[in-house]
Write a structure and sequence with these properties.
heterodimer, A: 8 helices, disordered N terminus, disordered C terminus, B: mainly alpha, globular
């Protein structure tokens, strides 16, 4: 009966551990910041850890250790468990969480470089096009007004591309800065004294 | 042991009692104490806890963010 209750096949348990940890982090942080009384809050937080553990087919301590990324330096309840597991040699310090963050970082980096390259190519193409058009116009006897129009159009398009590049760089730094903040927040949670 | 006896003597379905027995094997005495204090010896509180864990476990298993949001908002 117990088997049927929550011990699902291993493949199913491991279907999406990163997602479970991501959700667990969010839920625990929300519960930590909630205005529920400490006793009730502690109870529900423990429920969350247990629920995650069951969903992932691991022990409650390991689930909490992974979701918080805590090591032996952790405080209170989570740190105590993490320390015990660590010394038993089966503790993976936030490995899944780190893997998820690294994957996200890699994806941001990859998209940034790809778009930057794309913009660089577009700028070179625009420069070449303008140069060719200007030569052609000169050869065909175009006057200064024609050349001025061509140059204005080129400058407008070039300015747009530069602006797009600046926006892209700004967005990239914003994303990477947020990741840094998230990591700092995790560290704070890990290092903060726990009252339960 | 007192908490285990409390669970066993409750009117929870047998499958829920077995569920708790396994949970207790994964917890330290301090952690069990949190649950024990939480229930205050009241079966209705034990049922709330049981349903909470089961609902969250299901939501985590399904990676169902909406379900988790609903559970947490009900807690608060």
């Amino acid at each position: 009966m117990l088997e049927n209750f929550f011990r699902k096949p291993k493949a199913e348990k491991e279907k999406n551990p990163e997602r479970v940890i991501e959700l667990g982090t969010k839920v625990l942080q929300k519960e930590e910041n909630s205005e529920i009384g400490p006793k009730r809050n502690g109870g529900y937080m423990l429920c969350t850890v247990l629920a995650m553990a069951l969903a992932m087919g691991m022990t409650a301590g390991k689930a909490e250790a992974q979701v918080r990324g805590v090591g032996p330096q952790g405080h209170g309840f989570g740190g105590q468990i993490a320390s015990e597991i660590f010394h038993q040699g089966v503790f993976e310090v936030g490995s899944v969480l780190n893997r998820t963050q690294n994957a996200k970082q890699d994806r941001i980096e990859h998209e940034y470089v790809a778009r930057l390259t794309q913009l660089g190519n577009a700028m070179r193409q625009l420069d070449n096009q303008y140069s060719n058009q200007r030569d052609s116009l000169t050869r065909q006897g175009g006057d200064s007004a024609d050349l001025k129009k061509l140059e204005d159009r080129y400058r407008t398009e070039k300015t747009q591309l530069i602006q797009t590049e600046n926006d892209l760089k700004g967005e990239y730094h914003k994303q990477t800065r947020n990741t840094g903040i998230k990591r700092a927040l995790t560290e704070t949670v890990v290092q903060g004294a726990r009252g339960w | 042991m007192a908490f285990l006896e409390f669970i066993k003597s409750s009117t929870l379905p047998e499958k829920d009692k077995e569920f708790w027995v396994l949970i207790l094997t994964t917890l330290t005495e301090d952690q069990i104490k949190i649950f024990e204090d939480f229930t205050e010896g009241k079966e209705e509180n034990l049922k709330v806890l049981t349903e909470n864990i089961k609902a969250k476990e299901q939501a985590f298993r399904n990676s169902d963010e909406n379900a988790l949001e609903k559970i947490i908002s009900n807690e608060q």
